[in-house]
TrEMBL record, chain A:
Entry-linked Pfam families: B3_4, B5, FDX-ACB, tRNA_bind, tRNA_synthFbeta
Family (UniProt): Belongs to the phenylalanyl-tRNA synthetase beta subunit family. Type 1 subfamily.
Assembly with partners or alone: Tetramer of two alpha and two beta subunits.
Primary localization: cytoplasm
Note on cofactor: Binds 2 magnesium ions per tetramer.
Full protein name: Phenylalanine--tRNA ligase beta subunit
Enzyme Commission (EC) number: 6.1.1.20
Annotated B5 domain residues: 411-486
Cofactor: Mg(2+)
Length: 810, 341
């Protein structure tokens, strides 16, 4: 919605000397948001009206002519050379004189065109700042030809109403009433302490009467609850007056002809769209508001065939659809220059139906934009009368007596009981009853008073107001949100709680970040192709994913059942920008349907997934470059489990996305708690990734019951320990876990800790063997140990390793 | 005779001390003159040969000389130690401009950090955290929130649908209806609900997945002024105590009165700049008094309790607070972006 401030002056006083932005802010804060304040004509200076008295050919240029202009009695005549093809002797045009300014910083000066002096420029509407969309195609290229009665030598900016300020609004859907000059003027008035005055509507009717000449029938009162019509005779179609054209343009509407322009003018003024039919093209002069037949076709005014459905409303004569109700008229009943009688329609259509029809047809008009918001059916006849008044006034035709008005169920009047105390308490500020009544009355609410009990009678155009809080809002927004104090709620609930699952997700995230990983946030979608690339067999339940009916892209048709595809995508994006190191994790939900197609909400479960790729450590002094390997991902899972107090057994994993030789999992009570390892080389290939990738995946629900955040506390030892380093020559396929198991088993009661500190394979050891060096720490809680105390366990260890694992002490 | 010898020793010590360069030199001098077989010790042994009268006098001379020499030795020793330390320090000088060894550090996503900061602020005000499903029923997402059946948001064009009755939630507001229904009628509560939300919109300034935080407080006598005060407290905690807060009348189906809340521009402080489109204000959240229909539809009695609710975009807050100017950076997960927060 746009409103010209000079037009607004018809209804309410607007102080044009003040910065228009200031009042725009007042409107915005009160819930009538002004998105933009546009100045019109500010830059134009020195443009006057002039009449072309003589046109001669330019002696040296085929496409130029020399015009002599009568600039009125106050100004000297001018000679101007122009290339415009649409000018004739006698035309009155806007003339930019020497030293004049045009929009866009253009300055016009005297010059010579091919040797002939030219003292200015003849202007097109475009050159005077009018957007092409507001001009008919034939008006876009040529000079702006002004009405024959235009006085000469007057300032064109004043005469053409070019100087103005236009507010452009971004209105909320509840305020359908503000989609009109009248509605906006109510807001202007209440916010500037005035009362708006509305046009005095009186219709000068002729002798003809509408009775019997036009009949109307509403077949579908759900989609059309009121239909009113007037008849116009002796119609002379032609251009509307300049003032009306300019007001329409400032409202963003293109002038077409006097009939259409008046319907649009009344729509902008009173808010209700209208339509005009050529009386003689409507069969039997009978109009029916009905649903379209499925497949019924109508050619609309934009010359496009529209195929309709039975969800759409048409206005039809007994033979054919003449108009898609509320959206666009049909060519078959269009008002043309030959039209002599017109049926004017003002009806109330169901907003949601108009919206759906418009969307289905890809067709939106200023009228449908008005209807979509839901209009005041009570205003139909007033709008018809206003249009009739204007049409008569501008000489477009004579108005037949009477109105045909089919209005089966009258719109109910809403009454809202309230007290000033109630509203004050709800808002948290004392506002007097008197003040409230004054605000509401300026907004045209009726007030009934019975002691303290008040009743607001809601005006028909305020369908958004139904209850006391609506009254409170009207009072508050006009009183000013800024004038309401800031208080703190008196609440009986002060204890904040958070679920165990939520706090564990937070904990896990913090641990993983402390392990050096960066958290990602990815979209909740996936496609089956990624699951295939990750080598999940097609029978895997992961493929049972929730499909989206209207996915945002073809790449993301499903709700994800695994985070791995998302993390692989992150890796691909990072590799594309040459990031050397990717170490990431995400704690996010996956969506697991109970069955497809879904009839109930799917389960939503959190996964904890991470990925390592490339350099753990870049070559940056003093560090050498180091690449991530399996033991990084293992270490992260181990650290996470240790921090969460989860104890589980390690085993080889058959998780299909993983390299079978570099795949592990932690298991407890037969349940896999974590899978991790190197991504299968085939997957790496299919993603076109350079080098190995390591991943882990944990299902939060599996580990939640095992979490124990209280660490296994051990007393700090009082007595010194003895440590022994033992290096063994072990067959290459000997597992560290196997040796550790022997060390722990035979290490005796004093063995406190054991860890591998060196692993070597190479020249120093025979083929088929490796050297594994362990550090063993013995300690007693009772006293200081001697070498003798640990000799027996060491002997037992050596014996067992030799016999069981064929490991020799080096 | 003895005096000359003593003087000679003193002179010799002094000369040798001057030449000394290392601590060992001092030790040698001490041995040579003061040690068990040292020259001054030898003189002491000769005291016996002197007469009774001379003995105390010479003895005193020797002792005085001994302590003088000892002092000189100590002093020289201290000097040499100081010199050695000085040398050591000089030799240990390093290039402090070489880079520090960086500990391996990970980073939580800035959206997560922002959400947590908001959650903590609300929890200090006594709000509990609740969560709900991303795949939501039309019933909780729209119907219980006073959206009419034909509201534009319920069109496929704006939302992602799974079936005609199930969709990806378009806001975190279903947690209002879910939490109301999870309580006994008219039971008071204070909740916030962070989470992912979805819209059918994908361009430079819209993401199909983004994050919101909903909040709601229900109790006897909750007033519009309370909504103002509480949100002002919250916004000043997040954006700093000097932040100006402005409430504008607005419209949401599930609140009445409704407001959009602006804060003074974080970039220009309200003077007007590109970020705030030269208005000095930035839109930050929507809020309002809960519509009586919402309370009724979810089993509460608007005559007995009142409520307010608010919702805000976590991305929006993160962008304004940290100056991130492109929404897409949040979901591209470029390591160069992730590592900065």
């Amino acid at each position: 919605m746009k409103s010209s401030l000079t037009w607004m002056q018809d209804y309410v006083n607007v102080d044009m000397t003040k910065d228009p932005q200031l009042f725009a802010d007042v409107l915005t804060i009160a819930g009538v948001p002004v998105e933009q304040v546009v100045r019109w004509g500010d830059e134009i200076k020195g443009v006057y009206t002039g009449q072309i008295t003589k046109i001669e050919k330019h002696p040296d240029a085929d496409h130029l002519v020399i015009c002599q202009l009568n600039m009125g009695s106050e100004m000297e005549p001018l000679q101007i050379v122009t290339g415009a093809p649409n000018v004739h002797e006698g035309d009155i045009v806007p003339v930019a004189t020497h030293g004049s300014h045009l929009p866009g910083g253009v300055k016009i000066k005297k010059s010579k065109l091919r040797g002939v002096p030219s003292n200015g420029m003849l202007c097109s509407a475009h050159e005077l700042g009018l957007d092409d969309s507001l001009l008919l195609p034939e008006e876009r290229s040529g000079i702006w030809l002004l009405p024959k009665d235009t006085p000469l030598g007057v300032d064109a900016v004043d005469y053409l109403d070019l100087r103005d300020t236009v507010y452009e609004y971004e209105l909320t859907p509840n305020r359908a009433d503000c989609f009109s000059m009248i509605g906006l003027s109510r807001e202007f008035a209440v916010l500037s302490g005035q009362k708006a005055t509305f046009p005095d509507i009186t219709v000068d009717e002729c002798d003809t009467t509408i009775a019997g000449k036009v009949t109307v029938d509403i077949e579908d009162p759900e989609l059309c609850n009121r239909y009113a019509a007037r008849l116009l005779v002796n119609v002379k179609v032609g251009p509307s007056p300049l003032w009306m054209q300019q007001r329409l343009r400032k409202s963003g509407v293109r002038p077409i002809n006097n009939i259409v322009d008046v319907t649009n003018y009344v729509m902008m003024e009173l808010g209700i769209p209208m339509h005009a039919y050529d009386y003689d093209k409507v069969k039997d002069h009978h109009l029916i508001a009905r649903r379209a037949k499925a497949g019924e076709v109508i050619k609309t005014l934009d010359d496009v065939d529209r195929s309709l459905t039975d969800q759409m409303l048409v206005i039809a004569d007994p033979e054919k659809a003449c108009c898609i109700g509320g959206i666009m008229g049909g060519l078959n009943s269009e008002v043309t220059n030959e039209t002599t009688s017109v049926i004017l329609e003002c009806a109330s259509f169901k907003g949601s139906s108009i919206r759906k029809t418009g969307r289905a047809l890809g067709l939106r008009s200023e009228a449908s934009a008005h209807f979509e918001r839901g209009l005041d059916a009570e205003g139909c006849v007033q709008s018809l009368d206003r249009a009739a008044q204007l049409l008569k006034q501008i000489g477009a035709g004579d108005v037949a007596q009477g109105v045909v008005d089919v209005y089966p169920v009258k719109q109910a009047v809403t009454k809202i009981p309230f007290t000033a105390a109630q509203v004050s308490h709800f808002l948290g500020i004392d506002i007097s009853e008197e003040k409230m009544i004054s605000i509401l009355e300026t907004l045209e609410f009726g007030i009934e008073k019975d002691g303290d009990q008040l009743t607001a009678i809601v005006p028909s155009f305020r369908g958004d107001c139904t209850e006391m809080p609506d009254i409170a809002e009207e009072v508050a927004r006009i009183y000013g949100y800024a004038n309401i104090p800031s208080t703190r709620p008196m609440s009986r609930t002060d204890q904040a709680t958070v679920s165990f699952e939520f706090s564990m997700r937070e904990k896990i995230s913090q641990i993983l970040a402390a392990c050096g990983l960066c958290e990602t946030v990815t979209f909740s979608f996936m496609n089956t192709d990624s699951l295939k690339k990750l080598r999940f067999p097609e029978t895997d339940p992961l493929y049972t994913a929730v499909p989206i009916l209207n996915p945002i892209t073809e790449e993301f048709p499903l709700m994800r059942t695994s985070l791995l595809p998302s993390l692989m995508d992150v890796l691909v994006r990072n590799q594309a920008v040459k990031n050397q190191s990717v170490a990431i994790y995400e704690v996010a939900p996956v969506y697991l349907p109970k069955a497809l197609p879904i009839t109930e909400l799917p389960d939503q479960e959190y996964h904890v997934t991470g990925l390592l790729y490339g350099q753990r450590q870049t070559a940056e002094w003093p560090n050498k470059a180091e690449r991530y390997d399996f033991y990084d991902v293992k270490g992260i899972v181990e650290t996470l489990f240790a921090k969460l107090g989860i104890h589980a057994d390690l085993e080889a994993s058959d998780f299909t996305p993983l390299h079978p030789g570099v795949a592990a999992q932690y298991v407890k009570d037969g349940k896999v708690l974590a899978r991790f390892g190197e991504v299968h080389p085939e997957t790496i290939d299919s993603y076109d990734i350079n080098g190995p990738v390591y991943i882990f995946e944990i299902h939060l629900n599996d580990i939640l019951p095992l979490i124990n955040l209280i660490p296994d506390y051990h007393k700090v030892a009082k007595f010194p320990a003895i440590s022994r380093d033992l290096a063994f020559l072990a067959p290459v396929d000997t597992a560290d876990a196997a040796i550790i198991s022997v060390l722990k088993d035979k290490g005796g009661a004093f063995l406190e800790g054991v860890h591998l500190f060196d692993l070597y394979q190479g020249k120093q050891v025979p083929r088929g063997y490796k050297s594994m060096a362990y550090s063993l720490v013995f300690r007693s809680a009772e006293g200081t140990l001697t070498d003798q105390d640990i000799q027996a366990p060491i002997d037992a260890i050596l014996k067992e390793l030799k016999e069981k694992l064929n490991c020799e002490l080096r | 005779m003895m005096k000359e010898k003593i003087d000679a020793i003193k002179a010799a010590v002094s000369e040798q001390l001057d030449k000394s360069e290392a601590l060992q030199d001092i030790r040698d001098i001490r041995v040579k003159y003061l040690g068990k077989k040292g020259e001054l010790t030898a003189l002491m042994k000769e005291l016996g040969k002197l007469s009774k009268e001379e003995r105390p006098q010479v003895g005193q001379m020797v002792n005085t000389a001994r302590s003088l020499i000892e002092d000189a030795l100590q002093q020289r020793m201290a000097e040499l130690k100081q010199q050695a330390l000085q040398k050591k320090i000089e030799s240990e000088k390093i290039d402090i401009t070489l880079p520090g060894r960086k500990p391996l550090m990970g980073h939580e996503h800035i959206l997560h950090q922002t959400a947590r900061e908001m959650e903590e602020a609300f929890m200090r005000m006594g709000f509990s955290i609740v969560e709900g499903p991303d795949i939501e029923s039309d019933y909780y997402n729209f119907q219980c929130l006073n959206f009419p059946d034909d509201h534009p948001a319920r069109d496929m064009q704006d939302s992602m649908y799974i079936t005609d009755k199930i969709l990806l939630r378009t806001h975190t507001s279903p947690l209002e209806s879910r939490t109301l229904q999870a309580h006994k009628p008219n039971e008071p509560f204070k909740i916030i609900a962070p989470g992912k939300v979805y819209r059918w919109d994908y361009d430079a300034t819209h993401s199909p997945v983004f994050h919101q935080m909903e909040g709601m407080i229900v109790d006897k006598d909750i007033r519009f002024s309370d909504l103002k005060g509480m949100l002002e407290d919250f916004l000043r905690e997040i954006f700093g105590p000097k932040t100006k807060v402005r409430f504008r009348a607005s419209f949401f189906p599930f609140t009445e009165p409704s407001a959009e809340v602006d804060i003074s521009c974080v970039m220009c402080g309200g003077k007007g700049c590109r970020v705030c489109s030269h208005t000095g204000w930035l839109e930050i959240l929507g809020c309002g008094m809960t519509h009586p229909n919402v309370l009724r539809q979810n089993g509460y009695d608007p005559e007995k309790v009142t409520a307010f609710a608010f919702g805000m975009g976590i991305e929006r807050i993160a962008m304004l607070k940290y100056g991130v100017d492109d929404l897409r950076l949040f979901y591209e997960d470029d390591m160069r972006f992730l590592k900065q927060f």
